[in-house]
Amino acid sequence: MGAATMRLNQNTVLVGKKVVLVPYTSEHVPRYHEWMKSEELRHLTASEPLTLEQEYEMQRSWCEDEDKCTFIVLDAEKWQAQPRLPEETCMVGDVNLFLTDLEDPTLGEIEVMIAEPSCRGQGFGTEASLLMMAYGVKKLGLTKFEAKIGQENEPSIRMFQKLHFKQEVTLRLAVSEPEQKWILEQTNHMEEKPYRAGCSDNHPV
Length: 205
Prior knowledge:
Elements: H1 3-6, E1 12-15, E2 19-23, H2 29-35, H3 39-45, H4 52-64, E3 68-75, H5 76-79, H6 87-90, E4 91-98, E5 107-114, H7 124-140, E6 144-147, H8 154-162, E7 166-167, E8 171-174, H9 177-186, E9 191-194
Parallel strand pairs: 5-6
Antiparallel strand pairs: 1-2, 1-9, 2-3, 3-4, 4-5, 6-8, 7-8
Helix pairs in contact: 2-4, 7-9
């Protein structure tokens, strides 16, 4: 995958029923940083604690990354409210696709985090994963997905099994034609729209 392919999503919004996926920009960093102060979330995502400045640097590097596709997950109801709320107040989590298997460019590793405790168990993670998988199939030419989840994270394991992943050493989904059709049917409500800002925005110094 080339840089141009991975940076496709910097100007893309994916609109679902419950969630909206937007590119990860500097505007989202302060809320993301607050989330990652949670020891539970750091454990589940195998993340190290970072300072706010390190978090901004991480956001910039993710934006430039050639083998990673990141969206912030927003609550669609809040995002569509009038008057329009700041995106930071609509944030519920993030979803990532990693294209790190050099021998198989059709394989994407998917990772989803619903960081807001009040938003868990409502299907946000399921729809965010489906929208990301549909994007991977349609835009990035992916035909296989895997999810690496700790054995103790039963809610995530159940969610991915509901999305047709099979549990081996890692949870994996091979997107045959019927599976591809199923993903696209599940996401036929998804709208793809241009995003108002790309990776070039800088946080105030």
